[in-house]
Amino acid sequence: MLLIDLYEKKLIDDDDLKLKIASLRPYKKLCSKRIHLNQLRELHVLATGAITHESLITRELSKQSIPAYRLNKAQREKDYHLDSDRRLTAFLYTPDTFALIIAPMVLQQKEALGSMGNDAALACISDYSPLLFYYFQQLFAQVTNPPIDPFREQIVMSLRCPIGPEPNILEPNEEIVPRLMLEQPVLSLIDLEVLKQTTVANWRSKVIDIVYPVRHGPKGLVPSLDRICSEACAAALDDYQLIILSDRKIDKDFVPISSLLALGAVHQCLLKQKLRVKVAIIIESGEVKEIHDFCVLLGFGADAICPYLVYETCHRLRNLGLIDDTLTDAKIYQGYTAAIERGIFKVMAKMGISTLHSYKGAQIFEAVGLSQEVVDRCFTNTISRLGGATFDILATESLKRHRNAYPAVEEKYNYGLFFNFSFNFFCSFLKIYLLMINFRIIGDSKTLISHGTYHWRDGGERHINEPFNIAKLQAAVRLNDKRSYQEFSAASNMAQRLCTIRGQLEIKTSRNLQIPLSEVEEASNIVKRFVTGLYFSLLLFFYRKK
C-alpha cells in the first residue's frame, strides 16, 4: 500500500503508513478491556461456587411436574416417557425432531443429510400451526455477491462477535464501556446462568418474560408485545447491558409468544428509540432447535441464543438410553453447538457473507404469508409480497399449540360426579370417548405426535410428492396406462394447490376471450428475443468490429 500525500508533498510507504495509523490511539489497551465469557465463568465460580449442567437441568425439570425430577428424591420415579414434559408439544417437538434433527447433531456434530428441497406445504397454508420461523425463507447470493465455500475457505469464516453496549466507532476513547466477546452465538445453560448473575464491569441483565395469560385469548398478543417493548426500553434507559427474552414461564396458564416475534418487536422498537446500541438481546427459548431457527433469530437482531429445551430433552434422552449414555451434558452441548456452527457457516456462505458480525441483524430473508402489519412492526423493511397471517392469526395458532399441550378436557368434563360408584367403568369409558371426539379440537398432550413434516404421514402434513402420486406415475409409465396418468395428474395438481402459492392461482377462461390468429406473433419472431447476456455481448463485439 502506498499513500501520496499531496499536502506534505511526499510518498508514504506501506510500513510507515500502517505505523502512523496504529499509533493514533492506544488500540492494544482498548482491546484489553474486552470481556470474554471464560473470564465471567471463572469469576462466577469464585463468587458462588461451581455449577453444572445437570444441576441446572434438574432444577428446571423439577418445575415441570416430571416424576423423575421431583425435588424430594424419595418421591422420584423412573423416567419412562418424554411426553411427560408438555412443553415439547407446545413447542412442536415430534419424534422426527429428535430422530432426524437433534440426535444426528449431538452424535455426529453436523446437520443430518436430507433430500434437496422441501415439498411440504408452506407455513402460511399449513393445517398444523407451524412456528413463525417457517414463514421466512433465506435469500441467497446473486451474481455480484458470489457464495463462499465455508469449508475450503474456512480461514475467512468467523462466528466471533462482540455484544453489549456499542460505542461510537468514530470517536474511540479509553473510557468506553467494555464489550463481551463471544466465540459463537449458541449459549449453554451455564453460560446463560453466568450472564444472568454477572456484575463484572457493573454489567446487569434484565429478564423479560415473553408469555401472556391464556385467558386473554388472541387479543392478548399485541398488548403483551407493547409491554415487552416498554420493559426493554426501560431496561436500556436504566443502564442494563443485557436483555434476556425468556419463555421459561410457559405453563397451563401462560402461553408463549414466538421468540422471533418478540425479538423483532423489541429490536425494531429499540432502533426507533435509538437505544439498540446500548444493550445486547439474548434469546432464552424452548422453540429454537433447528439451524434455520438460529439463522432467522440472528438475522433479525439476536446477539446470542440459548435453546434450553434441547439441552434438557437430550439429558432425558441419555437417561432413557435413547442416545449414547457415555455422553455427558457438556459433550451434548459441544456436539450440538458444533453442528449449529457448521449450519450457520453454510447459510452465511450461500449469501457470500463470511462473518457473523455482517450477517447479524441484516434481515436477509423474505417473508411468505405474513401480513403487512406484522412485517411493519416486527420485521421492518423485510420483503413480503403476499400478505397473510395477522397478529390475531399468529396468536390463534400459538393458542392452538398451547391447548394441545395443556388440554382442559379433564377439568371441563368431570362426568364422574354425576354417576354412582357402580357406574365407574361406564364413566371411564365415557371420558375416553369424549377425549376421542374432542381430539381434533383439543389435542393430545400425552403423546408426541409426528405431523409428517419431514417424513410423510397418512393424515399428516400435505406434501407435493405423496405416495399415491408416485404410485400412479409409476403405473402410468410401466403399463402405459392413460387412466393412471390422469389420476396422477389430478392428484399432483391438487397437491400443488394445497402446498404452494402458485397452486392457489387459477387461469381465467372465457369464450369471449378470443384473439384473432392474425394478431398472434409467429414463434420464429419470438425466439429472436430469447438472448442471454453473453450472446448479446458477442453480438455487440462483432458489430463494433465491423
From TrEMBL:
<dbReference type="GO" id="GO:0015930">
    <property type="term" value="F:glutamate synthase activity"/>
</dbReference>
<dbReference type="InterPro" id="IPR006982">
    <property type="entry name" value="Glu_synth_centr_N"/>
</dbReference>
<protein>
    <submittedName>
        <fullName>Glu_syn_central domain-containing protein</fullName>
    </submittedName>
</protein>
<dbReference type="Pfam" id="PF04898">
    <property type="entry name" value="Glu_syn_central"/>
</dbReference>
<dbReference type="InterPro" id="IPR013785">
    <property type="entry name" value="Aldolase_TIM"/>
</dbReference>
<dbReference type="InterPro" id="IPR051394">
    <property type="entry name" value="Glutamate_Synthase"/>
</dbReference>
<feature type="domain" description="Glutamate synthase central-N">
    <location>
        <begin position="87"/>
        <end position="371"/>
    </location>
</feature>
